[in-house]
């Protein structure tokens, strides 16, 4: 696929923009503003540091550095860097947390908590990696293939 084609499949919510409702895209989404409602994207959702999202997100993969109040669901990876703040459950193939999560993490494969991670909720996965310095308050259920969002 050409670079021009890839770029045309990216929707952008710019700084200062406020959107309320349901956002659906066959491509990817970059958020730099404020979204409230539901987000359903086939590709990747990237939420910047200064963004605020009050929505459930379903996407191929998710990377967020901002704040979100809602559930995250992805058949791929969910990446939460140090600036991220999530209030909601996370369901994905793999989850990497450097920020904070108030909710349950369910991964088909691996959950990794970095040294700045703060998780207040249960973790269900096959592999759990907890780096020194991470804070985890909840139950850990490991060893068998975990179930996705439909349980």
Discrete helix count: 1
So what's the overall shape?
Answer: globular
Largest sheet: 19 strands, parallel
Whole-number mean pLDDT: 89
Give the H and E element order. Answer: HEEEEEEEEEEEEEEEEEEE
Structure summary, number of beta strands: 19
Poorly predicted segments: 1-7
Computed CA radius of gyration, to the nearest angstrom:
15 Å
From the helix content, strand content and strand pairing, which structural class follows? mainly beta
- Percent of residues in beta strands: over 45%
Number of domains: 1
Distance between the termini: 36 Å
- Give the helix level as a range of percent: under 10%
Task: Describe how the helices and strands are arranged.
Blueprint: H1 3-8, E1 10-13, E2 18-25, E3 28-31, E4 34-41, E5 44-47, E6 52-58, E7 61-64, E8 67-69, E9 72-73, E10 77-80, E11 85-87, E12 90-97, E13 100-102, E14 105-113, E15 118-120, E16 123-124, E17 127-130, E18 135-137, E19 140-141
Parallel strand pairs: 1-3, 2-4, 3-5, 4-6, 5-7, 6-8, 6-9, 7-10, 8-11, 9-12, 10-12, 11-13, 12-14, 13-15, 14-16, 14-17, 15-18, 16-19
